[in-house]
Amino acid sequence: MEMMYSIIDIALWLLGIYLLLNCLYLSFFAFCGLFSLPKSKIAASNYQKIAVLFPTYQENEVILDSAKKALQHQYEGKFEVVVIADGLQPETIATLKEMGTRVIEVFFEKSTKGKAMQFAMNELSKEAFEIAMVLDVDNVMATDCLHYINSAFEEGERVVQAHRTAKNMDSSFAFLDACNEEVNNHIYRKGQAIVGLSAALIGSGMAFDFAYLQKLLNNIGETVGEDKQLDFMMAHDRVHVAYLNDVYVYDEKVANAKVFTKQRTRWIASQVEFMKKYAFEGLAQLFKGNIEFFNKTLQTFLMPRMLLLGFLFLLVVQSFFNPFGPAEIFWLGLFLSLCFTLLIALPRKFYADKRLYIAIFQIPRAMFGMLVALFSIGKAKKSFMVTPHSHKPIEKNNA
Fold first, then answer.
1. Left, alpha or beta for 240 (phi > 0: left; psi -120 to 50: alpha)?
2. Is the pLDDT of residue 151 over 90?
């Protein structure tokens, strides 16, 4: 019995150390994110040819609106809106072509965004495009977005991540998702950029040197997390990802717990996939001086924040009844430090919006959704778990 007590005590201390490292990582980059980045430049002497890519899977209604808005975007140089059509209806394709959109149809037995992008990039390779701007099917670029992207590339960047932000906050869950998006931007993009590290790609609102993206996609393989795979490939190549904090791309936020769970299932599956794949290589790269690659590996070991928040709360409660492991003050300190980290990572404008205080009551449902997602990650490997979208206008407060 004495040995069992010792094992429980050691296990709780090891768990405490792991969760402490989680909180330290998040709080460090949340603090760094409080500092300002230089304003993005818009002026340029050369306007490069840009392909605005919309990988689209069975989204017949939303893509029409998104493509229309992209075609109306003002840019001094040449750009073309390209819809990569996987499973679109013939009438949708016809309408897109009538609007002036280029449509590249793809047909796969098992669809992935990576394979669709790879096919399209190879189709466009002789079109003299210099920049590829990747958007989700529901994304809308803010005014002058392409001008800012072009200017960043003229200054020598090869990969750029724009600031993806909420298009809609029309339900409590959408508002909570919008908050989560901004916390991610603060910690994994702005905070990282402040200390000179690459911003984490987010899957859309990202721009690449066209030839370089084509090279990456031709070697990406089949994965549920194309953006994370690209992150690791670029870190291996030591290619920096710039972050344009003041250049916006609007993105639809999930409206309910069911969609939230489905989306997070794919995200957690992606994280687990790359944790297994790159754990040892991350250490090897660190000894080679590749801090960027090691940092990406560290991120795969972090517990998803919503799970971390719920788990720490339970550990605080159990510490008042359980004599083993760290004392109550340790668990309470971790829980409060995480809450403080999330508070400083959230933009100030959210605190003036009463919807925030209503959305807080959705956190337990989000935690449960994350728990369900954790035990459902096997589904993400068997099917293309696309997030459903609907036509949502940009809220005036966000524009």
1. beta
2. yes
The sheet that has 131-134: what strands, in order across it? 102-105, 79-86, 50-57, 131-134, 206-209, 159-166, 241-251, 140-141
- Burial (CB count within 10 angstroms: exposed 0-12, middle 13-18, buried 19+), residue 379: middle
First to last CA, the chain: 63
What is the rounded CA–CA span in Å between residue 88 and residue 212?
28
pLDDT tens string 233-290: 999 999 999 999 999 999 988 776 677 777 777 778 888 888 998 999 999 999 999 9
Q: Give the position of tokens 């998104």.
A: 66
Would you tell me how many other CB atoms lie within 10 Å of the CB of residue 257? Answer: 15
- Any idea what DSSP says for residue 153? H
Q: Are 135 and 204 in contact (CB under 8 A)?
A: yes
Q: Which amino acid is at 34?
A: L
Helices (H), 288-362: 291-301, 305-319, 328-345, 348-351, 355-359
- The CATH fold assigned to 11-35+45-399 is Spore Coat Polysaccharide Biosynthesis Protein SpsA; Chain A (3.90.550)
Contact present, 236 and 290 (Cβ < 8 Å): yes
DSSP state of 36: P
Rounded-to-10 torsion of CA 303, 309, 310, 313: 130
Q: Are 249 and 162 in contact (CB under 8 A)?
A: yes
The pTM of this model reads 0.91
Q: How far is CA 64 from CA 28, 69, 71, 229, 392, in A?
A: 42, 9, 11, 29, 12
Written as six digits, the tokens of 30 are 């949340």
Element (H, E) at 244: strand 241-251
DSSP SS3 for 248: strand
Domain range annotation of the chain: 11-35+45-399
**Which tens digit of pLDDT belongs to each residue from 48-58?**
999 999 999 88
Which two tokens mark 241?
């990802």
